[in-house]
TrEMBL record:
One family name in Pfam for this protein: Ribosomal_L2_C
Molecular-function GO term, any one: RNA binding
GO biological process: mitochondrial translation
Domain Large ribosomal subunit protein uL2 RNA-binding: 72-151
Keywords: Ribonucleoprotein, Ribosomal protein
Family: Belongs to the universal ribosomal protein uL2 family.
Protein's name in the database: 39S ribosomal protein L2, mitochondrial
Domain of life according to the entry: Eukaryota
Large ribosomal subunit protein uL2 C-terminal domain span: 162-286
Length: 295
């Protein structure tokens, strides 16, 4: 007797088994043919830790603004990321990654007024100003209060002397220069190497393109007119600082893991059975072999 999908039949009765298998294959084929019409792949929406609130007038400001945390929920209130929790109430600052318009000959000079950590980004912020205009930019590694940074859009025949903190077109920088906040399209604003500790290196110039090596070891070719800032982004060791405990990580907005590998009783979920004790089996004895001669 054999039991196949709820039917009991003899081994010799192959007709019933063949009909059952044919019906099953037809049902699977029909299901697969209908599947592309009935099911659709649900789009994945990235949910950040929160979203900033823009000023009412929509203009740039250096004042602190409200930052609303998402808690891992989408706009409908459904939890789509269970690893994001609450966190402390923080403000955010509008950062200006665009390069101001400056004269090609003289350039623009700005003074660093204040440097402080960014509550929602990894790189530190630097408040710079010139005249009556102030803005927040990305602080480089060795920036200090009172420094003067320059922005120049001139591309001379001979490469300029790259000073840390100054902004120049990629075509004006010498080989081997470390840069950050790089434009992909001239006039678009910085888009590459803006995280804490990020930087790219100018490798070579081919035709009207400049080859850069990114932190991922990939190489990218950009136009001579793309602006970049000399130096490395500040707060380079932010990934090396360990968490002091679970409480600090939860306070920062990270929910605990699932606890799958935590040893617990069956009351709190699936019980992880202890591993079996190590059993040492005795080695089998070695038998002596004797060769019998025919004498």
């Amino acid at each position: 007797m054999a039991f196949i999908k709820g039917f009991i039949c003899h081994w010799g009765d192959t007709v019933l088994v063949q009909q059952r298998l044919l019906f099953r294959s037809y049902r699977l084929a029909a299901y697969r043919s209908r599947r592309k019409f009935k099911t659709e792949r649900r789009p994945f929406h990235y949910v950040p830790k929160g979203h900033p609130v823009l000023p009412p007038d929509g203009k740039y400001t250096t004042e602190p603004l409200t930052y609303i945390r998402s808690g891992g929920r989408d706009l409908n209130g459904k939890v789509v990321n269970a690893k994001i929790g609450g966190g402390p109430k923080v403000n955010w600052y509008m950062r200006d990654d665009h390069y101001p318009e400056a004269e090609e000959t003289q350039g623009l000079e700005e003074k660093v007024l204040r440097i402080h950590p960014d509550p929602i980004r990894t790189a530190h912020l630097a408040l710079v100003g010139t005249g009556n205009h102030k803005r927040y930019i990305i602080a480089h590694q060795n920036m200090k209060e009172g420094d003067i940074i320059k922005t120049n859009r001139d591309i001379p025949t001979i490469s300029v002397r790259a000073m840390e903190g100054n902004s120049h077109p990629l075509g004006a920088l010498p080989m081997g220069t470390i840069v950050h906040n790089i434009e992909k399209i001239p006039g678009e604003g910085g888009r590459v190497c803006r995280a804490g500790g990020a930087s790219a290196q100018v490798l070579r110039k081919v035709g009207d393109k400049v080859i850069l090596r990114l932190p991922s070891k990939h190489e990218i070719a950009l136009s001579f007119n793309c602006m970049a800032t000399v130096g490395q982004v500040s707060n380079s060791g932010h990934d090396d600082i360990p968490w002091k405990g679970v409480g600090e990580k939860m306070s920062a907005g990270y929910r605990p893991r699932t606890g799958w590998h935590h040893r617990k009783t069956g009351y709190h979920g699936k019980k992880i059975k202890p591993k079996r004790t190590f059993i040492v089996k005795p080695t089998p004895p070695k038998y002596e072999t004797y060769k019998l001669s025919g004498d």
